[in-house]
């Protein structure tokens, strides 16, 4: 078990290291001199040279990479050119919106999808199955930003229950903050929930065809109990895999959804930074997102081992 | 009143009739053997009895168990019966247990469910039951998971689950088919003991007449969803009143007819090979149409003609045996071959110690000889076969085939050797690419010819090969799924003989086939040996196969060859413990009937 | 379950028969054909010009002349959707093509070779998977310039590891089969075995994955265009139409509804097609039904 965990963590760290090299390398080869960008067209050659020296742009590339990594490890993400404030502060500020949004969506999606998937599998081929899977089929096809527009039209424009966009900040009361995240999280969660429900159902159906299900039935256990006690845990592996993958989708999805709802989150930050070539912000946010994907993957791997004893022994 | 009475049971699934009026009776403490080939409906009878049928199944007739009408029982009534009064053991122990639950949980689960016992109570009963089936707590604690157990041990767990609540009836559906003979005997003994000890009824379903003859008091023979014959076991099996019964009995102890007359011979240096091949027996060889080709063989065992033209090898020459009876160079020489597999990783930098699958094995096979490599599952025989086929490389030692060193050659240089050495696998379903037509499948080894045959030549070669194995040339346009299991095994053999190899390695070639089909395929092997002079290396755990068509047997145990000699000598007088265990465990119809008769006489 | 068809009908014909009997497949195929036909038709005919501005006609609702209404420049929405289908389909197909052409050989190679080659390829795969695909696509298109070509490349890159994984997993399940051993015993090398035996047996997996990635590609292209990073004006695209609709939605909800429906219907059709194809091609799943 420890070997398995250690192995996963080491692979994760190695992936993270490689990712940092890729991110740094890509930013390096991009056209455009950060110092030039900061100064604009007006800067004199001397001022440019000064700034470059000040920013450490004249150092050898390996040195700058190490410097950057060292900074990341100590929480120093550099300074944004456009916001002229530390990237770490920007990220902290924006995470206060994006993290609750991502968590709300993930919970929403999981709590809708698992019961629906299980329910459909238990009533395979009957009306509830057909209906819920038909809906899921449709849900998978809906682009989340279009769904967001429909939600805005229905709940903000027409019913006027919830705000159409913007974020009042957590200082204006927790409920106000949550209220402005409800529509965005639904828009993010439902298409994901549709996928997850389909995967849950088909994973369960696969497992229900296994020999050991027949063994359990031959013991005299009723169907429902067999489903809960024997099938569910075995069906969790593919479900966990998809959950892990969806986390990455959710992160990327926030970029578009935060744009639709004008939410000041990480997604909007990185989108604006990209269009304004504020590369130091882009680097920092991308590394953060990549790290969180990798952490989630490690957690999924650990969850596999909890579910399946065979994995605990294999390294 | 009988414990179980089945009357005129019919079953159809989606308008497809499966059972057409089955009658069967089973008394308390009695063993009823249900025998039939695949598709006879024997497993479906068991599932009907448990009411675990697939969706869309329609039943008719009557099943009475312990006074209860099963076919009209509610699901709640069935839940109370299943696992409590009726236990069931399945064929495939590797998949019958839930991989994510401990064996303790799985045995205790049924106990808790039916008796409402506390967890601790149920667990101590589970422990006692596991102990009874031969898995003592000291070595197999309740916290073990299925993957930590071997196939035989898992089947014991399944039996423990089925018998935990002392059921009145145990249904065992091919409980030993997936196990080797030694394990099979252990499991059957266990079932026998449990029946005697608890006065259970046992419904033993099997395709193997010998197994049933050893175990069952009464026997029911099924075919195509109908009962062919039933009655007291020895009476039915000695009288063989119904032709199908006779056919099954004949097939299960089958020896190909064209081998029976062959006396053992003494080739110098090795144990007997084909008896009709000796200095003076040249003329008697069943060469048939081939005799005009003999001059080719006078000079060299290497068939140069075959290399140049694909057609020449179809004119039926005898592969490499110098005529005249002097000492022959062996066709295959295996010298001190060892194969180690790296141990499983236990940590980041630590591994278990390597597993030695094959340990210092040496032997030779001479041209035209038919040798069996016999051993229990996991003894290393299949690993050895792969190395001989140059699909795997030995860790040390050497393999020489037909003058080629296999273990050091590159794939490219193995062509000559490969052309003269082909393979037949166990699974008639898995050994063909389902997306290709027979023509392409059977022609695959022609890839080894140096000149690519034209399309016409290829078709001619394929139709000849199909003809060799008793199929029609027109079959080459079909897909493999259009053939039955036995026919597919014929296709495998056609593929193997198309290059007229000198050696065919056959890995359990008949163990997936029904007995009657098995007999036909064994006949074919024997006939081809006779007609084409091809040598065989048969890998099997089944001694009847070895007895049927091989001259010599090698017994393998824990990676080593522990005994080698003439087939009949070894099977009749085994010397090593491993060979003795195999011989003792092998089910044998005649022996079983004799033992049964002796018991009855003793009782009188 | 009559034995007759399997006995006499070659797989190609029986595939057609099975396909016509599969509801998902038929519906999916019909939808996909309609959308593709619409895109093709738009090259020769659209009800109105999809690019010409006609201020007099702006923001018209649904009517007999303009079935789906007009936008803020007076362009006919139906015509724009027809032309927009081209970009969606082209981007998604080419991105799937990139994924297949590069990913499948890599996956097959990894499966055939094993050892460190496999390990390295799979680690690189993990690395690509660590980057949320849409995020990276946004970065690529934002930095190298918005437009359809860069969108294709950006989406295509992330299809590579997907197809590599599917191909590898499929190939690994085929390699230990006995017919592969038989082919090896016939002296066939890894390349030949991969072409003759592995690929034909994983093609159904790839086909199904292909339709899924195609559908995802349509969604991704719409997302990029919505952010202004995909297909550029004046060429209409579904995502861009939704962006334009957002600020005018209160006055004219039809602006948002029809392009969105176009995306939903297309993706739905492809997913149904993929589901149907999987049921038909995968005998293991067929047995479950």
From TrEMBL, chain A:
Keyword Oxidoreductase recorded: no
Transmembrane feature ranges: 9-30, 101-122, 143-161, 181-199, 235-257, 285-307
Superkingdom, taxonomy of origin: Bacteria
PANTHER family listed in its UniProt record: DIPEPTIDE TRANSPORT SYSTEM PERMEASE PROTEIN DPPB-RELATED
GO CC aspect terms: plasma membrane
A Pfam family assignment: BPD_transp_1_N
SUPFAM superfamilies: MetI-like
Annotated compartments: Cell membrane
Protein name, per record: Peptide ABC transporter
Segments forming domain ABC transmembrane type-1: 95-300
Keyword annotations of the record: Cell membrane, Membrane, Transmembrane, Transmembrane helix, Transport
Any one GO molecular function term: dipeptide transmembrane transporter activity
Record-stated family: Belongs to the binding-protein-dependent transport system permease family.
Membrane topology: Multi-pass membrane protein
Cross-referenced Gene3D superfamilies: MetI-like
Automatic annotation (TrEMBL), chain B:
PANTHER family for this protein: D,D-DIPEPTIDE TRANSPORT ATP-BINDING PROTEIN DDPF-RELATED, TRANSPORT ATP-BINDING PROTEIN
InterPro entries: AAA+_ATPase, ABC_transp_ATP-bind, ABC_transporter-like_ATP-bd, ABC_transporter-like_CS, P-loop_NTPase
UniProt membrane topology term: Peripheral membrane protein
Chain intervals for the UniProt region annotation (Disordered): 250-304
GO biological process, one term: transmembrane transport
Gene3D superfamilies: P-loop containing nucleotide triphosphate hydrolases (3.40.50.300)
Keyword Protein transport: no
A single GO molecular function term of this UniProt record: ATP hydrolysis activity
Coiled-coil positions: none
Entries under PROSITE patterns matching the protein: ABC_TRANSPORTER_1, ABC_TRANSPORTER_2
Domain ABC transporter: 4-249, 332-583
Record carries keyword Transport: yes
Species the sequence originates in: Tianweitania populi
GO CC field: plasma membrane
Pfam family, one: ABC_tran
Family: Belongs to the ABC transporter superfamily.
The name this protein goes by in its record: Peptide ABC transporter ATP-binding protein
Keywords annotated in UniProt: ATP-binding, Nucleotide-binding, Transport
Subcellular location(s) per record: Cell inner membrane
TrEMBL record, chain C:
InterPro entries found in the cross-reference section: BP-dependent_transpt_permease, MetI-like, MetI-like_sf
SUPFAM superfamilies assigned: MetI-like
Annotated Pfam families: BPD_transp_1
GO CC, any one term: plasma membrane
PROSITE patterns given in the database record: ABC_TM1
Membrane-crossing residue ranges in chain numbering: 25-45, 89-112, 124-144, 202-229, 249-274
Domain ABC transmembrane type-1 residue range list: 85-274
Broad class of where this protein is predominantly found: membrane
Keywords: Cell membrane, Membrane, Transmembrane, Transmembrane helix, Transport
UniProt name for this protein: Peptide ABC transporter permease
Organism: Tianweitania populi
């Amino acid at each position: 078990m420890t070997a398995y965990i250690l192995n996963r963590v080491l692979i994760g760290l190695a992936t993270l290291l490689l990712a940092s090299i890729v991110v740094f390398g890509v930013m390096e080869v991009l056209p455009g001199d950060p110092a030039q960008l900061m100064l604009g067209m007006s800067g004199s050659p001397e001022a440019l040279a000064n700034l470059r020296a000040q920013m450490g742009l004249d150092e050898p590339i390996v040195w700058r990479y190490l410097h950057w990594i060292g900074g990341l490890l100590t929480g120093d993400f550099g300074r944004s050119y456009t916001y002229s404030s530390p990237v770490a502060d920007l990220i902290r500020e924006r995470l206060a919106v994006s993290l609750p949004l991502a968590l709300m969506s993930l919970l929403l999606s999981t709590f809708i999808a698992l019961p629906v998937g299980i329910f459909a599998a238990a009533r395979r081929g009957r009306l509830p199955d057909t209906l819920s899977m038909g809906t899921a089929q449709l849900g998978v096809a809906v682009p989340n930003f279009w769904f967001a527009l429909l939600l805005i039209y229905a709940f903000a424009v027409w019913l006027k229950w919830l705000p159409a966009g913007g974020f009042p900040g957590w200082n204006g009361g927790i409920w106000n903050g949550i209220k402005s995240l409800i529509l965005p999280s639904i828009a993010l969660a439902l298409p994901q929930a549709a996928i997850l429900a389909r995967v849950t159902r088909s994973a369960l159906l696969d497992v229900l065809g296994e020999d050991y299900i027949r063994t359990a039935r031959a013991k005299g256990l009723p169907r429902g109990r067999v489903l809960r006690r024997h099938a569910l845990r075995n069906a969790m592996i593919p479900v966990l895999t998809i959950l892990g993958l969806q986390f990455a989708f959710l992160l990327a999805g926030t970029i578009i959804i935060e744009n639709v709802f004008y939410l000041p989150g990480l997604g909007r930050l990185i989108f604006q930074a990209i269009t304004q070539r504020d590369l130091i912000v882009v680097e920092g946010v991308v590394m953060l997102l990549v790290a969180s994907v990798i952490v989630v993957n490690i957690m999924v791997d650990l969850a596999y081992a909890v579910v399946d004893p065979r994995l605990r022994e294999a390294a | 009143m009988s414990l179980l009475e089945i009357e005129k049971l019919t079953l159809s699934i989606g308008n497809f009739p499966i059972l057409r009026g089955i009658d069967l009776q089973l008394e308390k403490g009695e063993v009823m053997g249900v025998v039939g080939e695949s598709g006879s409906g024997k497993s479906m009878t068991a599932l009907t009895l448990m009411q675990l049928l697939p969706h869309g199944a329609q039943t008719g007739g009557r099943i009475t168990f312990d006074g209860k009408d099963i076919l009209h029982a509610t699901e709640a009534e069935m839940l109370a019966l299943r696992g409590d009064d009726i236990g069931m053991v399945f064929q495939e122990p590797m998949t019958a247990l839930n991989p994510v639950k401990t064996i303790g949980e799985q045995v205790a689960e049924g106990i808790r469910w039916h008796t409402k016992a506390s967890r601790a109570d149920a667990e101590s009963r589970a422990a006692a039951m596991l102990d009874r089936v031969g898995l003592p707590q000291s070595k197999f604690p309740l916290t073990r998971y299925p993957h930590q157990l071997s196939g035989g041990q898992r089947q014991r767990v399944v039996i423990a689950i089925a018998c935990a609540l002392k059921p009145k009836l145990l249904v065992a559906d091919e409980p030993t088919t997936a196990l080797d003979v030694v394990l099979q005997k252990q499991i059957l003994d266990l079932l026998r003991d449990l029946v005697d000890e608890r006065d259970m009824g046992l419904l033993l379903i099997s395709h193997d007449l010998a197994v049933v003859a050893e175990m069952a008091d009464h026997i029911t023979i099924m075919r195509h969803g109908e009962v062919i014959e039933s009655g007291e076991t020895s009476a039915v099996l000695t009288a063989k009143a119904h032709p199908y019964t006779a056919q099954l009995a004949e097939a299960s102890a089958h020896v190909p007819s064209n081998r029976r007359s062959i006396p053992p011979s003494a080739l110098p240096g090795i144990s007997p090979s084909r008896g009709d091949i000796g200095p003076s027996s040249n003329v008697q060889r069943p060469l048939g149409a081939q005799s005009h080709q003999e001059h080719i063989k006078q000079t060299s065992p290497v068939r140069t003609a075959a290399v140049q033209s694909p057609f020449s090898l179809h004119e039926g020459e005898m592969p490499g045996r110098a005529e005249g009876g002097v000492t022959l160079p062996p066709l295959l020489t295996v010298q001190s071959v060892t194969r180690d597999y790296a141990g499983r990783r236990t940590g980041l930098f630590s591994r278990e110690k390597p597993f030695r699958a094959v340990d210092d094995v040496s032997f030779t096979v001479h041209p035209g000889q038919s040798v069996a490599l016999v051993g229990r599952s996991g003894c290393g025989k299949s690993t050895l076969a792969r190395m001989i086929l140059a699909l795997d490389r030995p860790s040390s030692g050497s393999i020489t085939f037909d003058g080629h060193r296999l273990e050091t050659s590159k794939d490219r240089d193995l062509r000559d050797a490969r052309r003269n050495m082909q393979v037949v696998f166990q699974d008639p379903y898995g050994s063909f690419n389902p997306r290709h037509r027979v023509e392409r499948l059977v022609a695959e080894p022609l890839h080894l010819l140096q000149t690519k045959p034209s399309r016409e030549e290829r078709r001619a070669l394929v139709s000849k090969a199909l003809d060799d194995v008793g199929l029609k040339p027109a079959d080459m346009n079909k897909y493999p799924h259009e053939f039955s299991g036995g026919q597919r095994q014929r296709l495998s053999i056609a593929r193997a003989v198309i290059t007229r190899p000198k050696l065919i390695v056959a890995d359990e070639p008949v163990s997936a086939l029904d007995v009657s089909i098995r007999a036909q395929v064994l006949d074919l092997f024997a006939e081809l040996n006779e007609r084409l002079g091809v040598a065989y290396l048969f890998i099997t755990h089944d001694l009847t196969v070895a007895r049927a068509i091989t001259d010599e047997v090698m017994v393998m145990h824990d990676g080593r060859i522990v005994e080698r000699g003439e087939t009949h000598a070894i099977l009749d007088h085994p010397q090593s413990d491993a060979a003795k265990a195999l011989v003792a465990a092998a089910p044998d119809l005649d022996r079983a009937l004799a033992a049964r008769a002796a018991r009855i006489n003793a009782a009188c | 379950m009559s034995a007759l068809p399997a006995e006499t009908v070659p797989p190609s014909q029986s595939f057609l028969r099975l396909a016509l009997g599969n509801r998902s497949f038929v519906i999916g195929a019909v939808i996909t054909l309609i959308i593709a036909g619409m895109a093709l038709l738009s090259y020769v005919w659209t009800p109105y010009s999809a690019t010409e501005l006609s201020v007099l006609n702006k923001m018209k609702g649904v009517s007999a002349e303009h079935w789906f209404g007009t936008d803020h420049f007076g362009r006919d929405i139906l015509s724009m959707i027809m032309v927009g289908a081209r970009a969606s389909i082209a981007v998604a197909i080419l991105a799937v093509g990139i994924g297949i052409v590069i990913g499948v050989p890599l996956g097959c190679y990894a499966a055939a070779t094993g050892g460190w080659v496999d390990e390295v390829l799979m680690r690189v795969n993990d690395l690509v998977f660590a980057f949320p695909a849409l995020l990276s696509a946004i970065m690529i298109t934002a930095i190298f310039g918005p437009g359809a070509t860069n969108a294709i490349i950006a989406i295509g890159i992330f299809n590579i590891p997907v197809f590599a994984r599917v191909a590898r997993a499929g190939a690994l399940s085929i390699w230990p089969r006995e017919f592969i051993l038989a082919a090896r015993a016939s002296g066939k090398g890894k390349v030949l075995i991969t072409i003759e035996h592995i690929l034909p047996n994983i093609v159904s997996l790839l086909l199904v994955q292909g339709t899924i990635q195609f559908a995802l590609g349509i969604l991704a292209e719409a997302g990029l265009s919505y952010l202004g990073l995909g297909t550029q004006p004046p060429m209409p695209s579904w995502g861009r139409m939704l962006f334009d609709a957002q600020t005018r939605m209160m006055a004219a909800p039809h602006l948002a509804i029809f392009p969105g429906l176009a995306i939903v219907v297309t993706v739905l059709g492809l997913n149904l097609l993929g589901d149907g194809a999987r049921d038909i091609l995968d005998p293991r799943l067929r047995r479950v039904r």
